[in-house]
Design a protein that fits this description.
- It is a single chain.
- The chain has 390 residues and is of the alpha/beta class.
- 35% of the residues lie in helices and 17% in strands.
- The protein has 12 helices and 15 strands.
- The protein is globular.
- The longest helix has 22 residues.
């Protein structure tokens, strides 16, 4: 019996190696990985450039401390800022840590300006921001909070897309607004096209901050480097993680000029954040994402995959209703229980992951090609037939 805490309902399946979008068991069975560690393995498994970068850095230095300058961290911060709204970056180790940093920054900004009362943060229905105490409070899942003494009083939850509620609850105690440009765990939900620009306008008018949680939707997942680039709205601060490290743990808080100096020495920190290994690998991930036409290919393959799913749905609307998404962040609307569809896909050697709203997510590596799209669609078709035979 394993000594690992049972915090996950683990499937009786383990892998010993991976190559590209494929995972292999010790018995030699291979699975097409359309989960990517839940939008983490940006370039799949065993990507040669990432492996080479990790090995090269590991022979020099792994970790010193953020008490000293870390050159790969500085280079990564420059690369992020040169390709975003950012002016400064704080590095940590995960998405939850990144959003913790975002929450602290939203409140500290006003504290520094002499308004310690401005602590409330507007958040949204079906949101997921992590599993720490503060991020559980910001998220919209009561089951996740049960028994942990989570205080949600400083988070004002409103329906996603609602304009009137935003205007109603922004007041003298509001620090900012926190939103996912695309909700991942919540079910691949998109706000109305004009919603993020509306939030930007409100924040600018009221002197509060706009924060985007791009932990799952960022790093090329939607066919742009960041999902908010599909909208005419820039945040004051943004949280990144998951795909940033391509499988190596790293998170980031990206701040604009207005907020770049809010977290000063002693106000925040992370022992391992932006260490040599993580920063070197993340820099290589971002460099590869920025190559000409790479993000175009993400969008093209995503369009082909969604078109194929729609065609299958049209013929099997007793099993799947439709599909929504952008790039390679795709949600299949399941009519049967989503866990049953995920299991049927796994029985045909494709890995997918469920989400709220009875959604099945396809989150393949961003460097898949049309052959992997075709195999994925073929397996989806077979899986539906398997379900119909039950």
């Amino acid at each position: 019996m394993s000594s690992v805490m049972k915090t996950y309902g683990r499937i009786d399946l383990s892998f010993v190696r991976g190559k590209g979008p494929w995972l292999y068991t010790s018995e030699g069975n291979k699975y097409l990985d359309f989960t990517s560690g839940i939008a983490v393995n940006t370039f799949g498994h065993g990507e040669p450039d990432l492996v080479s970068t990790l090995i090269k850095q590991s022979k020099n230095l792994w970790h010193t401390s953020n008490l000293y300058n870390i050159k790969p961290q500085e280079q990564l911060a420059d690369l992020i800022c040169n390709n975003s709204f950012g002016e400064s970056v704080f590095f940590c180790n995960s998405g939850a840590e990144a959003i913790e940093g975002v929450i602290k920054l939203l409140r500290r900004y006003h504290y520094n300006k002499g308004f310690p009362n401005k602590k409330n943060i507007l958040v949204f229905s079906n949101a997921f921001h992590g599993r720490t105490i503060s991020t559980l409070a910001a998220g919209d899942n009561n089951d996740h909070r049960l028994g942990f003494g989570v205080n949600t009083e400083l988070f004002i939850r409103i329906p996603l897309g609602n304009i009137g509620e935003v205007e109603k609850y922004v007041d003298k105690n509001t620090a900012g607004i926190l939103i996912e440009p695309v909700q991942g765990e919540g079910g691949i939900n998109f706000p109305p096209e004009d919603y993020l620009p509306f939030l930007r306008e409100v924040c600018s008018k009221e002197g509060i901050l706009l924060a985007f949680d791009e932990v799952q939707s960022g790093m090329g997942r939607t066919g742009k480097l960041f999902a908010h680039q599909w909208y005419d709205a820039l945040p004051d601060v943004m949280g990144l993680a998951k795909g940033l490290g391509g499988g190596f743990p790293i998170g980031a808080v990206v701040a604009n000029k207005l907020t770049s100096d809010v977290l000063s020495a002693g106000t925040h920190g992370s022992t391992f954040g932006g260490n040599f290994l993580a920063a070197a690998v993340a820099k290589e991930v971002l460099t590869k994402l920025l190559k000409p036409r790479f993000l175009d290919s993400v969008l093209e393959n995503g369009d082909k995959l969604m078109e194929g799913i729609k065609n299958i749905a049209d013929k099997n609307n007793d099993i799947i209703i439709g599909v929504r998404g952008k790039g390679l962040m795709i949600g299949i609307e399941s009519k049967v229980k989503n866990t049953e569809l995920v299991e049927a896909l796994r029985d045909e050697n494709l890995l997918a992951v469920p989400a709220a709203g009875n959604i099945v997510r396809f989150l393949p590596p961003l460097n898949i090609d049309i052959s992997h799209v075709d195999i994925g669609l073929e397996i989806l078709d077979k899986s539906i037939k398997r379900l119909k035979m039950k």
